[in-house]
Design goal:
The protein is about 40% helix and about 10% strand. The chain has 14 helices and 12 strands. Helix 6 runs antiparallel to helix 7, helix 11 runs antiparallel to helix 12 and helix 12 packs across helix 13. The C terminus is likely disordered. GO terms for molecular function: DNA-binding transcription factor activity; sequence-specific DNA binding.
């Protein structure tokens, strides 16, 4: 896929590759942010500018040393070999982190949170990491308010995420925060990944994959998305799936990781945000289009989810200027703004 050249105003993201880095997760930031039509500039560095070994059978050479961290608007720390995830920083890593300017947005993936925590940057703050590492993390960093049951946590200038695919989720969330859902959805399509998995959605912990021959709720979920304007109930969904209420609820949670009601609310909010960004419909009209009974209900749900009212969200992200979102960050979506 040919990438669009970066824009003059591109936000610089520096990825810090540490010893034992996981190759897949190392590439997430470049793949996701690099698909945002030139809105981001990506640099990858190591603590000394030399090649770094991965947890696989090869090394990775980079073009930049730690001095690149001084120029970053956002720093991404991918995960690395668990055996190296201790409660202390080596001198080279500590020296590299010291080059990051105050106020720079920090994003960690999986064991990357161990680096932020060891630097004292997560003390007293909410954070997450891979659920398998939760107890180990708590023992090392008791001052961190760890929540191992979510995909990612946005605490303003520091964002932490769980393992592997949640790194994609948090990068898309950053794009959505910076540029709105339309841009994030476009990037998700290019990367062939779901455009939105709520940060509070549970990590998929030991959820069995349904057998190919098993009856699933996939068709009913699509039907619900096509009929969001209707006052859908659990009875309606179970009836469409031709299952009992109990069977449907159990199977739905097993496949999606949350209840039908919570999932439905998230889909309605996602659609409402898209309409706020891309249409001139009134808040009352949007509420009706997405299945909230009143505009008040939409306001309450949107405020609970991201801390802003519909009109404030529209002022931030409404698509103008040739169809591009003009906003940078929505209040309450974390203070992760373009710097």
């Amino acid at each position: 896929m040919t990438r669009v050249p970066q824009r003059e105003s591109a936000h610089r993201i520096v990825v810090l590759a540490l010893d034992g880095v996981y190759p897949f997760e190392l590439g997430i930031a470049n793949r996701v942010f690099g698909s945002a039509d030139g809105r981001y500039e990506l640099l990858t560095c190591t603590v000394d500018g030399r090649p770094v070994r991965t947890d696989a059978d090869f090394e990775i050479a980079v073009d930049h040393g730690p001095e690149a961290l001084r120029t970053a608007g956002t720093v991404v720390i991918p995960p690395f070999d668990l055996a190296l995830a201790t409660g202390e920083l080596s001198d080279p890593v500590a020296d590299a982190l010291a080059m990051i300017r105050p106020g720079t947005r920090l994003v960690s993936i999986c064991t990357g949170a161990f680096v932020l925590a060891a630097a004292g940057l997560l003390d007293g703050r909410p954070a997450t990491t891979h659920w398998v590492l939760a107890e180990h993390f708590r023992r090392l960093f008791p001052r961190v308010r760890l929540d191992p049951g979510v995909l990612f946590i946005d605490d303003g200038d520091v964002l932490t995420s769980a393992g592997a695919a949640s790194g994609v989720d948090v990068c898309l969330h950053v794009i959505r925060t910076d540029h709105g859902s339309a841009v994030a959805n476009h990037v998700a399509r290019l990367c062939v990944v779901p455009p939105w998995r709520e940060g509070g959605q549970a990590q998929y912990i030991e959820h069995p994959v349904p057998e190919p021959t098993a009856v699933t709720t996939a068709a009913t979920r699509q039907w619900a998305l096509d009929h969001l304007h209707l006052p859908l109930t659990l009875t309606d969904l179970a009836g469409h799936a031709q299952m009992s209420l109990r069977t449907f609820a159990r199977r739905f949670r097993g496949e999606v990781g949350e209840s039908p009601g919570r999932w439905l609310t998230q889909q309605r909010l996602s659609r409402a945000r898209q309409l706020l960004e891309t249409s001139d419909l009134s808040v009352d009209q949007i509420a009706g289009h997405v299945g909230f009974t009143t505009a008040t209900s939409l306001r309450q749900h949107l405020h609970a989810a991201i801390g802003v009212a519909p009109l404030a969200y529209r002022r931030t992200f409404h698509a103008t200027r040739g169809g591009e979102p003009v906003g940078r960050s929505a209040e309450g979506c974390g203070d992760a703004v373009m710097r």
